[in-house]
Amino acid sequence: MRLRLLAALLFLAAPFSSAADAPGEKEIRAIIAAQAAAWNAGSLEGFMAGYEKSADIRFVGSKGITRGWDAILARYQKSYADPAAMGKLTLDEFEFTPIGADYMLVLGHWKVTTEAKGDAEGRTTILFRRGPDGWKIIYDHSS
Q1: Rounded to an integer, what distance in angstroms lies between the CA atom of residue 39 and that of residue 31?
Q2: Does domain 22-142 have CATH number 3.40.50.300?
Q3: What count of other Cβ atoms lies within 10 Å of the Cβ of residue 35?
Q4: Which helix (H) or strand (E) holds 87?
Q5: Calculated CA dihedral for residues 72, 75, 81, 84, nearest 10 degrees
Q6: What residue ranges do the domains of the chain occupy?
Q7: What is the pLDDT, as a whole number, of residue 108?
Q8: Average pLDDT per 10 consecutive residues for the chain, totaling 143 residues
Q9: 134 membership: H or E segment, kind and range
Q10: Helix (H, G, I), strand (E, B) or coil at 120
Q11: What whole-number distance in Å separates Cα of residue 40 and Cα of residue 37?
């Protein structure tokens, strides 16, 4: 009897044990993968294609808050002047949390490996917004 009860509970719980992708998750995963590919190809502009091209977006890092797409690109260009300085970017360990129909909060892990500086890694919290151009990053806290 206990075995039947356990089997029934496992059967009923199975659909809830692995959550289906949240709406927008596949598209956002593709954007993040494209960003990593652009970074690893040495293209900061390609990496920045995942961000909303707006003066209203924000990047928060160890050196403070940077406001606006152009300023964020300039920050990256200063810190990563060439492909050797950019190294290899890995993005993983994602958690997706929908916030309404047009926003997605993404938690993850980043790692940059370079020959000159070795490894740097940390956590990221990214807010995506769905707009006319699809899903784009509007806030990025990476440290």
Answers
A1: 12
A2: no
A3: 20
A4: none
A5: -70
A6: 22-142
A7: 98
A8: 35 39 94 98 97 98 96 96 94 97 97 91 98 97 96
A9: strand 134-142
A10: strand
A11: 5
